[in-house]
Specification:
This protein has one domain (4-292): TIM Barrel. It contains 12 helices and 9 strands. 34% of the residues lie in helices and 15% in strands. The mean pLDDT is 96. The chain is an alpha/beta fold.
Amino acid sequence: MQPDWCAGMIDTSTAGNISIGLAGWSYPDWTGYVYPKGLKDYLGFIAPYFDCIEINSTFYRPPEARLAAGWAKKVEELSGFFFTAKLHQDVTHKGEILPEMVGAFRDGLGPLSSQGRLRHLLAQFSYAFTDSPANRDHLSRIRDGFSDIANLTLELRHASWQADHAAEFLRSLQASVANLDYPVGSQSYKPWITGIGEHSYLRLHGRNSEKWFSKGAGRDEVYNYLYGAEEVKQIANRAAEIATMSKSLTLIANNHYQGKEAVNALQIKALITGGKVAVPPLLLERYPQLKEIAR
């Protein structure tokens, strides 16, 4: 049964092709909010509560097969659980697509892809990455290098990619373009539904506009945002709508500070499935509003 505050609001018929998860699982500020002190196995603890997890570490350093094999081992009992992984910043922010990097992703994520545990590679770009001939060529080279590893998903943030001719080009790549929930300005990419790609992606960054557009704000400040009940309903309805147009939808919450992404992901999961969900005990203690969806 749906919680009282969302009864009758959400179309749960698409729940079967929506997977809900977290952006990362290793944050120091999660101790005392999500993880009890002294916990060693973060992934093994948190994975059973969700459908998937986005690997963020690959943005900073190439994946290693031994680590990926360990991750696969930790979730081997979780039927249907999968990972997504961010492409390295050298590819998305420096414009470098070296054969060594392509090989590192193919080999390093091999233990996941070989077991059907890798669904998306996410290429996240900055606002500075605008629609231009050079950048179109760069996207084509990313597709050529990485699209055989997993479904390629592009996170574009500049409004120039919304133009009809840009959207036509993006469709020609046969990649997905991520749907985003984040603070927007006049030059932000902001379709309600991108409609590009068979396997959709919805990424939640929070709506902390003041810090998002502040050059001096730190990472924790930017992502320190807890979606309220009405905002969660809106996101769940948006997810259900996207899912009707897609073979699958992966929804990843990235408002990670002090476990807020876990709170909102669980709330959305309860809305989408129409039932109560398992909640980590410490998270329930820190965020008592979860009591109405906790089983």
